[in-house]
Amino acid sequence: MTQLQIGPHSVQPPVVLAPMAGITNAPFRTLCREFSGGKGLFVSEMITTRALVERDAKTMRLIHFDGTEKPRSIQLYGVDPVTVGRAVRMIVDEDLADHIDLNFGCPVPKVTRKGGGSALPFKRNLLRSILREAVGNAGALPVTMKMRKGIDDDHITYLDAGRIAVEEGVTAIALHGRTAAQHYGGTADWDAIARLKETVPEIPVLGNGDIWSADDALRMMRETGCDGVVVGRGCLGRPWLFGDLVSAFEDGGASYAAPTLKEVARVMLRHAELLGEWLESEERGVIDFRKHVAWYTKGFSIGSDMRRKLAITSSLGEMDALLSELDLDQSWPAGADGPRGRTSGRNRVVLPDGWLNDPYDCAAVSADAELDTSGG
Questions:
Q1: Count of helices and strands (H, E) across the chain
Q2: What is the 3-state secondary structure (H, E, C) of 182-248?
Q3: Nearest to 230 by CA among 34, 22, 75
Q4: Binding-site residues from annotation for FMN
Q5: DSSP 3-state of 9
Q6: 3-state helix vs strand vs coil in the chain, percent to 5
Q7: For the segment 101-116, what is each residue's pLDDT rounded down to a tens digit?
Q8: Beta-bridge mates of residue 41
Q9: What is the pLDDT of residues 184-206, one digit of tens each?
Q10: Catalytic residues, which ones?
Q11: Which cofactor does it need (predicted)?
């Protein structure tokens, strides 16, 4: 079976759960790991380096891993090299994780308007400084990075960023085959993943974008030559996708999940229950789960009124009662394995004033560019 090496960690099969704000918390990672039999790599939500070094209460909750998570993987967001270095040193000194991933791919305006996420690789020297601080403070911990093709079609950065990453000792690179301007719209450019692999053959390259099924993952690796895949929106409301991925890589896809609505309902209740335990409040857990309802029920014959009721529940009992009213014998809907989550694009990327004037000028980063909260 294909194996991915991230520093000392063997990831088998070569499948990584993409960090997603408000989604890839400990409860969701638990579900995904259960379906995969513990195989693969499951990364935390995006953690802001400033919030980490300041020990923000929400951030400290987000970096909690239970004893079954090995390796423990944290994704960091930061734009200030010194703060990034301090956060990485804190992780090492306090044994908070076994692997650090750096976010240079987030396209949301509150991140890019400060020069972070997918905006940052345009500033080549700033990117190099951040990577140097991270790797230099990581000790034996592997440091990887996730990025996009660039800001837009006129400002493509991924090949330069890949070369800089190799020079600074980054262990692996994940590329989402879209620009920040595309957001999540259009079709991911898998050819860019292939070009990056050709450009930086020294380290593993992981592909990300439009993996909606286990067969998509196999096809991406076959067509691009990448060393592994990163799965994001494809697993929304489908944590069993990781079981499919294990099956695809181990036995060619002999057994893929096609759960009935009854089986899906059981997973929904377990997900909400895990969130309640994690948040130490059943009500908070069920409320947090509301965002997942549409993803889990996509394609099933439920009706808009029932969907609305499920999306405003506040207790496990209420949720269970509503689910029991459904026709739970429904088979897995045709087409439900396709695109899910955000699919819209946008044409303009919000950037700091003058950001595109000079790709080598670090001075354009504002003093408040470090977000003070995580999970964004």
A1: 15, 12
A2: CCCCCCCCHHHHHHHHHHCCCCCEEEECCCCCHHHHHHHHHHHCCCEEEECHHHCCCCCHHHHHHHH
A3: 75
A4: 19-21, 75, 146, 176, 232-233
A5: strand
A6: 40, 15, 45
A7: 999 999 988 889 989 9
A8: 16
A9: 999 999 999 999 999 999 999 99
A10: 106
A11: FMN
